[in-house]
Specification:
The protein is of the alpha/beta class and 231 residues long. It is built from seven helices and ten strands. It is globular and about 55 Å long.
Length: 231
């Protein structure tokens, strides 16, 4: 199976092609960036496909991170994945950013629970907790940092994600201490591809995974705003 993986959810623009038959990445590229995903993504994918020496028509799946993450970045990656899937008549697979973070740790076959955490700002994080074998302990949610830290009840955890250091710095001294802290700006694109290979296309659609509404609200239409002002 040949899978094109795409990630623009956080502070990187990344793509990779996985060949599951040989169990290797044919090509990959990840560029750190906070903004500019829309301009960078298509040329980056073109370079990855050229390096892999493949055409889009031979792909079996397109996998993409669907959140939590930047609302703008998510739209860029998901739109691209859907476009390629439509053109190639292949399924587009949506994978959460939190699961992509956790996959690298679960793949190490360790027993410690894994807390994936993404900075949600305002003293909050998006997080989920899985056991060392990947089974779910706490479903993805957005909550205050103190609630995420309460996960110490599951034992000394492995912290991963762009908010891993935030949790580590606030971790109670009388609680089981983290066994490792992996502060990564974005998930490993290779694991996005592997998750895409394992996913069921019928239950993992490529659509945004929002745990809360955007901070910015669209402006009211002029006529509606005027009517509201008069009334």
């Amino acid at each position: 199976m040949l899978i094109l993986a795409i990630d623009t959810a956080l502070d990187a623009c990344a793509a990779a092609v996985l060949d599951t038959e040989t169990a290797e990445l044919r090509a990959q590229e990840s560029v750190p960036m906070k903004r500019g995903h829309a301009e960078a993504l298509m040329p980056l994918i073109a370079r990855v496909m050229k390096s892999a020496e493949l055409s889009f028509t031979v792909l079996d799946r397109i996998a993409v991170t669907v959140g939590p993450g930047s609302f703008t970045g998510l739209r860029v990656g998901i739109s691209a994945a859907r476009g390629f899937a439509l053109a190639a008549k292949r399924p587009a697979i949506g994978l959460t950013t939190l699961s992509a973070y956790a996959a690298a740790v679960v793949g190490q076959n360790r027993s410690a629970p894994v807390i994936s955490a993404i900075d949600a700002r305002h003293d909050h994080v998006y997080f989920q907790i899985v056991a060392g074998d990947g089974s779910q302990l706490v479903r993805p949610r957005v909550a205050g940092i103190d609630e995420a830290i309460a996960a110490s009840q599951f034992g000394a955890p492995h912290l991963v994600g762009n908010a891993a250091n935030i949790l580590a710095e606030r971790w109670p001294k009388d609680a089981p201490q983290p066994v490792a802290v992996d502060a990564q700006a974005a998930p490993d694109i290779g694991w996005v591809a592997w998750l895409g290979a394992a996913a069921n296309p019928d239950t993992t659609p490529a659509r945004p995974f929002y745990l809360r509404a955007p901070d910015a609200k669209p402006a009211a239409q002029p006529q509606l705003a005027a009517k509201a002002a008069i009334s």
